[in-house]
Protein: Glycoside hydrolase family 13 protein
Amino acid sequence: MSFLISWNTQAGTIDSTALLSANLSASEVNSTAPLTIEPLSWWAGMHNPKLQLMLHSSALPADATQLKVEIAGKDVVFEGIEQTDNPHYLFINLDLRQAKPQTFDIRIFAGNKQLFQLPYTLAARAEGSRERQGFSNKDVIYLITPDRFANGNPSNDNQADMLEQVAPENSDGRHGGDIEGIRQHLDYLAKLGVTQLWINPLLENNQAKYSYHGYAITNLYRVDPRFGSNQDYQGLVTEAKQRGLGVIKDVVLNHIGSNHWWLKDLPSSDWLNVPQHPDAKNATTSPAASFTSLSSTKPGFTSHRRTTVQDPYADMQDKRDFVDGWFVDSMPDLNQRNPKLATYLIQNSIWWVEYAGLSGIREDTYSYADKAFLTQWTKALMAEYPHFNIVGEEWTANPITVAYWQKGKINADGYTSDLPSLMDFPLYEKLLESLNEPEGWDTGFIKLYEMLANDVVYANPSQLVLFEGNHDTNRIYSLLKENLPLYQMALTYVMTAKRIPQLFYGTEVLMTSPTKDRHDGVVRSDFPGGFANSKVNGFSGKGLNAKQQQAQAFIRTLLNYRKHSAALQTGDLLHFVPQNGIYVQFRCAAKQAAAGNACYQADADKVMVIYNKNDQAQTLDLSRFSKVLAGNSSAISVFSEDKFELNQSLVLPHAGVMLLELKPQ
Structure:
């Protein structure tokens, strides 16, 4: 028997070299048809002892009564098989409660004829896998679009079996960045001060266009070969850990790419959501239909009306239009209400966490998937890894809409979420508004100040992820009109807020973009120095102009200070109503637990942040903050290392930000 995939049970690693998941040629048995099995492997000793195996082959008999499965594993309990309305798929249910690490045979018969015999591996879990620590307030997340960060292995840029080839001159094409490019620059990232890497999807995207962004996945168990291999990804995570860096996987539960192999032979007629346009004719959703046939049904696209999910007055069809509609015709919408698909997606997420050694998941387009499934998915992951973390994307400026999805929120409709974290789009939007607007009664800093009052709607606001930009937003330096003091205020706010902070690659070297409408390919431009013939190198600093050097040094100082500041990581927040274009915040960490805000404790570790929009020198009267400053006689500037006496006032020389570490008397 020959295999396109082999398993190595040593140290729980899997040699995933399959062209399409686990495709096994069983020519030495009684079938020459290929067989796909997913998950590729599993582990003994998981919290959930149940395992669903999905097998696909055209050789499987249409008559389910003819099927027989034998499991030759020690303490591997066979609980039965299930089929859908597509006879090419077989689901095997196992109980691994007592099973130890081993490789066992699965034998499949049609009547008395053996069709397949294949080995399946239960690996030993890595030590401490269940207790792994997810990303937290102690971290700074660095978002990387891998195709645009660095090309460490030009030999993998083009692949014969991939539809799209490298086109570096095309802003919407592939540029060649890869896993090796990230690996080669781990030292740069560690010295910058980040502690977690969120990498846009690395899985296979065998689409004809726009495959670089990674969000139209065509194989959920295979790293795109233009990025590297499964082993390369696993190796990257291992090397990152050695430098104090965790890795967060970008997961897409809502949809797949139109060239996913499922679309050639759907597992069941309800595997996808295919809402019809009124003018659709002769529509078919039979499981054996090709994607060409599915396309002829003209599936409806999502309305993007996300409030319908929680709106007590929303029409049921409006709710379905949002959840079941497709993003675009190249992204078929998955029906997570199908229990077999739901289990498949849950197991896939767990597989990557366990296989690669991940410290978190960022879930794309969170609210677009079925909400009952989302709770099932998050509960399963958090039960498997109690200290893990997951952040969901809910792109809205409305805090109430975001708050609905966070664990612990008591919702009026009774919906219970188990999602620990969400992206804080509302605070991000207000940060931009407040910095770009002139100061007034209801403009400028007051918007940022008052937005924080909305934290009362969140179950756990400190667990939200606040960012200065991401792969879908225009570059912050451009949005702030390339004003360096405003940029420094924005970055300081993100890094000192009572949130988990996230930085977008290239922000530290002032990467720019258009500011009107969306220009995704330009926003995700190449990091300077990551590609051949770069005249500027952000990694080494060669060719950076004075402002870029200043910005990079600023970020490095800020992040490395935060790495060792309990006040900025987990301290209480106290802020004061902005006055005269000046906004003051404190972060304070108590030395011992006590009631009330730690900023009023004389011996607490305290950091004072002063945001100043005034171009001319200003004198800040400190008497307003006397209750906080009690016990502190001086302060040291984090950026300049200058010492300030905390007497009656502070002179603010110009627009910008002061970050002061308060010193005890």
